[in-house]
Design goal:
alpha+beta; five-stranded mixed β-sheet; 7 helices; 10 strands; 18% strand
Length: 268
């Protein structure tokens, strides 16, 4: 059996190869007492014998690693090497001595990149009664529907409807995006009043988000609370898209609507 190399001899050989010998002195049952490790003298990187629970290499493993399997060459090297020189440069190997395979330094795991921030959620649309400050936006919407109206005109009509107890409704998500007007009509030929949605328009760029549905649901709730037994919708015959929307909400075409414009200034 080969004689175990002393710690001093291992340390000298390690220094000769540009390494630093680390030796455990912890006398703990099941620990790493009597085990070794090697570090690069220049960088301090761990080369051999370091584990999660301490040092792992035996003296024989350190010796084999340092001398690359050539005992005679190593003994000559140790005999010619001073016992000090902690930072001595590694000696050049003879041409016949193969270079030992050095373990690559352990790489620290790269941190995962931070996930992209989630987009801000769109504000939830809400329905409320129209206010005087909404007149400019309502005028824009009404004009887009084909009824040219100024902000001043809309403000006057809005005030009259609010006084009559039938305030128009608007839907918004920070800005007004749609408007609906409604009316309760007492009917002699029906046991209960008839509710009517007389106008509804949603800004074109905001369509498809359920804003029209939110307005219609709010209007139906008010008409039901007013005792109406029927809800009618007035919609221009040319607005095919609007007709499809109302059909999808359970409305059916039940009659024709006839209109007559009085002379003397046009439609009022």
């Amino acid at each position: 059996m080969a004689e175990e190399v002393s710690p001093d001899a291992l340390r000298a050989m390690a220094e000769n190869r540009g390494c630093k010998l680390v030796r455990s002195r912890r006398r703990k049952p099941g620990g790493d007492y009597g085990r070794y490790g090697l570090k690069d003298s220049q960088t301090g990187k761990e080369v051999l014998g370091f584990g999660a629970d301490g040092l792992t290499a035996t003296a024989e493993e350190v010796e084999r690693f340092l001398r690359g399997g050539l005992a005679a060459t190593w003994k000559q090297s140790v005999a010619a090497t001073p016992a000090v020189a902690a930072k001595a440069r590694p000696a050049k190997r003879p041409a016949t001595e193969p270079a030992e395979a050095e373990a690559p330094p352990a790489r620290s795991p790269q941190p995962e990149p931070d996930p992209d921030p989630e987009p801000e959620p769109e504000p939830e649309p809400s329905v409320r009664e129209a206010k005087p400050g909404d007149s400019a936006m309502i005028a824009k919407l009404v004009t887009a529907l084909g009824f040219a109206s100024s902000e001043t005109e809309v403000a006057k009509r809005l005030s009259a409807l609010r006084k009559a107890g039938e305030p128009p409704l608007v839907v918004e998500d920070g800005a007004v995006l749609g408007v609906l007007t409604w009316h309760v009509t007492p009917a002699l030929h029906r046991p209960r009043p008839v509710g009517r949605v007389t106008m509804m328009i949603v800004e074109e760029k905001a369509r498809g988000r359920g804003l029209g549905t939110a307005l219609l649901d709010a209007a139906e709730a008010r008409l039901r609370a007013a005792g109406c037994g029927l809800v009618e919708v007035t919609s221009n015959i040319e607005l095919g898209g609007a007709h499809a929307f109302y059909r999808s909400k359970g409305y059916e075409r039940t009659s024709y609507r006839f209109a007559k414009i009085f002379g003397g200034g046009g439609e009022e």
